[in-house]
Amino acid sequence: QVQFVESGGGLVQPGGSLRLSCAVSGGIFSIFGMGWYRQAPGKARELVAGITSSASTNYADSVKGRFTISRDNAKNTLYLQMNSLKPEDTAVYYCSAQLGNVHYWGQGTQITVSS
Q: What is the pLDDT of residues 45-99, one digit of tens each?
């Protein structure tokens, strides 16, 4: 059973920064493809950023240059550094681990960008 502990969400003003963390247990973290997804009210869940087991990264166009995904295999932890936050970044953010065609999901953490 893969389990997640997500942290770092909250309320931030436009232009501010937040760092999300996702500690993973119950699997071999280093072999998982990992990602951060988000879902805003009334919208479908979308990929924000992904990182492979070999640390290759990809980003949604909407966050390129503002968000950075990283992983620490020694700590079994995934990170998302979010800078220059915009109101449209408001959503529930989910940590995800993927092995083959199987996705495992965290419980989600709310990010609200508002003045």
A: 999 999 999 999 999 999 999 999 999 999 999 999 999 999 999 999 999 999 9
Q: Rounded distance, CA 105 to CA 102, Å?
A: 10
**Cα pseudo-dihedral 70, 73, 77, 78, rounded to 10:** 20
Sign of the torsion formed by the C-alpha atoms of 7, 43, 37 and 19: negative
Please answer whether residues 3 and 26 qualify as being in contact, where contact means their C-beta atoms are separated by less than 8 angstroms: yes
For residue 110, the one-letter residue type is Q
Contacts of 61 (CB under 8 A, 6+ apart): none
Residue keyed to tokens 């965290």: 106
Q: Could you give the CA distance from residue 41 to residue 83 in angstroms, rounded to a whole number?
A: 22
Rg (CA), the chain: 13
- Amino acid at position 70, single letter: S
Instruction: Name residue, tokens 């309320």.
Output: 11
